Amino acid sequence: MKENKSKAVPAALLSMLCVQSGASIAKQLFPIIGAAGTSMMRIGLSAILLTIINKPKVSALTLKQWKYSLFYGLGIGGMNLIFYFAIQRIPLGLAVTVEFVGPLLLALSLSRKVLDVVWALFACAGIMMIVPWDTNSVDPIGLLLAFMAGVFWAAYIVMGSRISKVMDSKTAVTTGMWVATLVILPFGIVGGQLGAMDWIIFVKALLVAVLSSALPYTLDMVALKQLPAKTFSVLTSLHPAFAALSGLIFLQEHLSLIQWASISCVIIASLGSTIFGQKS
Q: Rounded CA gap, 15 and 19, in Å?
């Protein structure tokens, strides 16, 4: 058990690194196949890959497990589709930071100790600093979409924590991904410019599927099995930092000192919640 717990935090960190790297690549596909088309390819290819690798025995699932899979998949599908619509309109780092409001509110709602609230407020301070309150240059619809994606992100964390207790991780992730595929499929067919697909775009979409869905959601199951939902929620506050670094490397997006300070706040919140939360 101790060995498994020691893997939880590294699994969560690697998951975040994969997601933000994949998001940077995905954003490059938007001008060609659109946000909906990119989301559909990402989730659909992930579902196929996970089915081949995990070989889930869905016929053995109980009604309760199917119900959990449905809500878990809705969380995945809503979170991904709406987030891609958001980063079509606003920068990646800003979108991820606003999206984190969902897990932050979840962490606050689950907190029972003063120290838990302190770490969540550190993350909140970081979010308040990075949002450009004094300018009209940022698309308000993009900000709203990012916040909505955060609501689905919180639902994903709650359902991921629950489903990890009643199903094995491989089956849970695979069935959840197929539910998410069905959620996104109509949007991808109607709004995705899939006629522009060629083998280079397909390979990039496959890379996005592996980095942004198949690998990180599997890693999240490892973390959610061992970490409390509130700890995992605040630990995800590292997402803006990974997004900023990914944007810098892949998209040449540079940050101001205020934005780096805001990221420092969420890193402090993440480390505090993880280190002190596990000791308590």
A: 6
The whole-model pTM stands at: 0.80
pLDDT reading at 146 higher than 80: yes
CA atoms of 112 and 134, how far apart (whole Å):
35
d(CA 41, CA 17): 20
Q: How far apart are CA 161 and CA 94, in angstroms?
A: 27
Nearest-5° Cα angle at 242, 237 to 244? 105
What are the counts of helices (DSSP H) followed by strands (DSSP E) for the chain? 13, 0
Q: Which two tokens stand for residue 59?
A: 């016929």
Q: Which two tokens stand for residue 102?
A: 């969902």
What amino acid occupies position 214? A
Residues 237 and 244: their CA atoms lie apart, in Å, by: 12
Domain boundaries, the chain: 2-279
Closest CA to 242 of 42, 30, 81, 19: 19
| pLDDT at residue number 274 | 61
Amino acid at 62: T
Contacts with 53 (C-beta within 8 Å, 6 or more apart), sequence order: 170
- Please count the other Cβ atoms lying within 10 Å of the Cβ belonging to residue 66: 13
Segment 250-273, tens digit of pLDDT: 556 666 677 677 777 777 776 676
- Residue 64: count of CB within 10 angstroms of its CB: 11
Phi, psi angle pair for 197, to nearest 5°: -70, 135
Alpha carbon 177 to its chain's center: 13
CA angle 239, 101, 116 (to 5 degrees): 85
